[in-house]
Structures are given as C-alpha cells and as structure tokens.
Specification:
5 strands; single chain; two-stranded parallel ribbon; alpha/beta
Length: 174
C-alpha cells in the first residue's frame, strides 16, 4: 500500500516484487503470523497481478514453530528477478460496480463497531447500504490454522444472509 493506504499501481507492485526475486520461475508460498491479514492481502495482490500459482500455508508461523519445524534466523539475500504483471481486473470490484449493485453480495469484514458506525477512526462512520457484516476474524480456523473449513465459512456466510454460489465483494478499511 502507498502512504495514504491505497493499493499501489500494478507497475509499482511489480517493481517491488522484482526486487525480492519473485520472477515467473518461482512459486510464491506465503505464510503469516498471528491473524493472517498481511498474508491474505499479499495473496490477493499477487492474484490481482495475474499470478495463478499463489499458495497460502494453512497454518500460521506460530503453528509451524509449534510443530517443531525448521526455521532460519538469518535473512536470505534476495536475487532480483523480473515480475511482469498481467492484471486480472475480475477479482477487484470498481466503485461504479458497487454503486450499481452489479457485483453481487457486499460483505463488510470490519469490526462490529465500525460496521455500526461507532468507530471514531472513520471520517464517515457506518457501512455501505445493503452490506452484510461478518468480521474477518470469523474466517480464521482453530489452533493456528489460517482458515476455517469451507463448510464453516459457508455456514457463517449463510447466517448473515449471503447464500453460496454467487459473487461476494468484501471490503474493509484498506
């Protein structure tokens, strides 16, 4: 994200990914710690940039460590490699699409206070009209697992009025 919290341009993102060596011959396997927000955002970003080989480990780093798996304590120097973006615009809803309600169900994944307009951090508190609410943490799995099971996720979505099978546009503060 840039300084204002907006997604950088595809070329800016490609330049950053080139520096860390994510070229076409390297498959990205992502992991995260604690709550998975950054890993999820990076997975989405890579898919938006056209990578179809993105993998997100099903356990947090703490789960990896708890399983007595190997860890390295020294940074690995990246070898730059060209990253060429091929933007897949279909995974990002535009403001016009959301305004015209042509995107499918809207899902606000912020806190309940943010959804209800009780957050002082928001310049314009509340939520987009017609959006359902399910906090992003409700998608997390148990015992260091990144995501709940597909059935549990579907049950949680149905409980807030989002039936399975159709497109869902989720949004948060970012």
């Amino acid at each position: 994200l840039d300084e204002s919290g907006r997604l950088r341009s595809p070329q800016q993102l490609a330049d950053l990914l080139s520096v860390v060596g994510l070229g076409p011959d390297r498959t990205p396997v992502l992991y995260d710690s604690f709550d998975g927000q950054f890993g999820a955002l990076m997975a989405w970003t890579l898919e938006y940039l056209g990578r179809q080989d993105v993998h997100l480990m099903d356990t947090f780093f703490e789960g990896w460590v708890a399983g007595s798996r190997d860890q390295f304590y020294r940074p690995v120097a990246p070898v730059p490699a060209p990253f060429v973006p091929a933007v897949d615009a279909s995974i990002r809803a535009t403001l016009d699409q959301v305004k015209s309600a042509s995107t499918g169900a809207l899902l606000d994944v912020r806190t309940a206070d943010e959804f209800a307009g009780r957050s002082e951090a928001d310049q314009r508190p509340g939520h987009i009209p017609g959006a359902s609410h399910l906090m992003w943490r409700d998608f997390l799995g148990e015992e260091h697992h990144y995501l709940a099971s597909p059935d549990a996720i579907q049950d949680r979505l149905r409980a807030v009025g989002i039936p399975g099978g159709g497109p869902v546009v989720s949004y948060c503060r970012v």
